[in-house]
Amino acid sequence: MLPLHKRKHDKNIERIDYETTTVKRVKRDRSISADSDIGRFHSLVSTINLKKLNFDFKKVCSVTLSPTHVYCCLVCGKYFQGRNERSPAFVHSIDSKHHIFINMNSLEYFELPENIQIEAVDDKILKVIRYAICPTYSNDAIKEFPLECIDTYGKVYANGFIGVTDSSNNHSAFINVVLMLIGHINPIRNFFLLTDLQGENLLLQKLSILMRKIWSPHLIRNYICTDEFLDFLVINKQLQKLPKDPKIFLLWLINNLAIKSKILKQQLMLHCQGKIVIKMNNKKTIPFWNLTLDLPVFRSDFNAVPQVKIGDLLKKYDDEDSEKYTLKQLPHFLILHFNRFDAKSEFPIKNRNQTLVEFNELLTIRNTNYKLISNIIHSVKRASDVSSEPNKKDDISLWKIQVYNNNINKWFEVDGSTIKEKNPEFLFINETYLQIWEKSS
Ligand SMILES: [Zn+2]
Q: Which residues belong to any copy of the USP domain (predicted)?
């Protein structure tokens, strides 16, 4: 007879409840800690390889693909299910001689194959791992953000100002930049950092984990992957039908968050929603999440890149004598959208409006002062660079976000996993697409 760990897996392996059969085996006296057996404890912890760990991906067993009772091997970073004699985690511990695991749900540590719980009490590395999976925050701590931090590779970063990418070479950049944008609206960020969302809607839970990671002062590496959140979005059929446009995704996200949480809806309305009077036909007042600014169309034989002042674009809403609109209530966080794409065009990206918008960091609308805090910008990868038939293909949109660090008064540009400082005088030399302005005194 083959030893237990060499036996062939049951065909219905996903149906086996690896957990309940083993829970009883972990008796109270079967645990180790730095106090009870310091030699064994340290030899186990010394096998942990932080650089192999990445908790940004879907937590499914690498053998059974099941998402239940998943453990991460802290030596190689792979996920395995269960911990009893037939479980993939048990087999892995024997085959690979990797013995320290964390339960991805309870965040408890175990030694396998002995199936002994490891008490994490004051060990620094074990604390870092728990924090990397789900960072926690206090009200007082977040008042000091952003902080100067160091990742496990020794790289200095500011929390909240990190790379945000995905494992498909930033293919979902139009979503990633919006996640960063939302993470820089402080009251909304604070909701996700401070609210216990266990048992709440999955969209709220997944977004909360992402926000917590973006603002973590104890990152393993100074960028995060949004894969787990993107995997969750794939199941939303309504979202899959929408164009890959940050403004459309932002409005989808805001509307869905408002539906899923009453408290968040109140916060969004209080901080991000304005009111506008529409004077055409029957005069009425409506709420808005963003103001869309139309860019002027210049003659096609115009050689230089056309430019327009942001103040001129805002006259549509800001002009006392406007026959169409009157701004009735300005929000604390004002979202501006610059309308560049014509969805009806055969090639919306090639034929976009490339007018540059002139702005600086301060703006006054109806005697209200605003300071720019986030700026999503657009550029392209030309079809001629990626296709043998460029006339039949549209260009590909690339998205970056520029964010302001008010603690050190500097701007940073996030391009996928990389981040670099930006001179504020040159922020407008891009195709700005979405901006957030915060009221200032
Ligand atoms: Zn391993």
A: 162-440
